[in-house]
Design a protein that fits this description.
Layout lengths: L5 E3 L5 E4 L15 E4 L1 H5 L3 E5 L4 E3 L1 H6 L10 E4 L9 E4 L4 E2 L3 E5 L7 H9 L8 H4 L3 E3 L1
Parallel strand pairs: 3-8, 4-7
Antiparallel strand pairs: 1-10, 2-9, 3-5, 6-7, 6-9
Length: 140
Amino acid sequence: MKHWPIKPLVELCDVEGGNAAPQGDEHFQDGTIPFVRMKDLGRPHFSNNLTETDDKLTIASATANRMKFFEPGCILFPRSGSVALNHRAILGVRACIVSHIGVLHNLRPEITPGFLYLYLTTFDMTGLSKKDIRGISLLG
């Protein structure tokens, strides 16, 4: 029988948050860059391919606000506000993410987005802080 090693989450990926949402309709009018908000994450509750967002940033706003871009395959989870709802998603498009959502990205070769996503759908993150999530251990 093979024994799988148990590793802290931070050994398997980077843990980060998104940016504060720009304020004002002008940042989103005729925008093309998906901007994931909590309502987008919560709509499906669990999604292995989150591609739909209500808002899209303009390129000018993304540049002016120094927005971080996250690539498909990142794992998203609530990190403030609606943490108790335990939403999870695999990002399906290149997008910017609101600061209330945590992002697991730069996954190491020994873990796949699908496995990490499925594992996290079974884990109750209620009450965890950003610092606490870094210490979650799982099979690697």
